[in-house]
Amino acid sequence: MREFLVVFLFIFFCARLSWATDREYVGFPHPAVLAELDGKKSVVFFVRNTYPGLINSSGGEGHIHDIDVYSVPQDGGEVSYAGPAPDGNVISAFFFTSKNGEKYLYVLSSEDGRDRGVEGRVYNAVNYSMSVIGGRLVVRDYPGDLQYFDLSGCFDGRDLETGRIMRCPFYDAQTTKKYLKSLEQGGPPFQGLNRP
Known about the structure:
By secondary structure, the protein is of the alpha+beta class. Helix content is 19%, strand content 39%. It is built from three helices and eleven strands; from the N terminus they run H-E-E-E-H-E-E-E-E-E-E-E-E-H. It has helices spanning 2-21, 51-56, 173-184, and strands at 26-27, 33-37, 40-49, 67-73, 80-84, 89-97, 103-112, 118-133, 136-140, 154-159, 165-166. The strands form two sheets. Strands 6, 7, 8, 9, 10 and 11 form a six-stranded antiparallel β-sheet that branches. Strand 2 and strand 3 (40-49) form a beta hairpin. It is globular and about 55 Å long. The model is unreliable at 12-22 (pLDDT under 50).
C-alpha cells in the first residue's frame, strides 16, 4: 500500500501544479504497468511534459524528452528514472523474455510520418532492463543495453517521394513480440526508408 501512496502523492502534486498555474505541465499518456522479476515487483509509469516544445524550439542548449519513464518498487523505495520513452505517443508497454532468458520492458510508440516523408505512421520501440538490486526491482535503460536498430523508425504507409508502399511488421505488443523473436532467430530486418 505504501508504494501506491508515493505514486499517488506524485500524481496529486503534478495535478495541483497544473491547477494552480492554469497550465497543464504534465500528463500521463499511458496507464502504469506492473513489472515483476524473481518475485519482486515495481510500478512503471509514464510522464509527459509540455516543456520540450518550449525548450527544444528555443534554440538553446540541451534537449528535453517528451515522455519519460519512471519506476517505483512495490515494496517501497525511491522513484527512479528508467529513461526516455521512444518518440511519439506511447501505444503499448509489454514484457519480453529474450532467448537468453533476460526479461525486458518494451515501450512501443507511434507518430505521424508526414514530418519524416511518409503518409502513414512511424513506429518506435525501446527496451528497458529489469534487475533486482538490493532486494528491489529496478527498471531502467542502461547505456550498454542492446537496442534493435530495426525497432526505431519503422515506417508504415506511402513514401511521399517515391510513392512506394511500406508495411511495418509491428504495430502493437503481439506483432512486436513476434518480430523480436524473428530477429533473435536471424530473420530479415525491416527494409524501410533510410531517414533520420
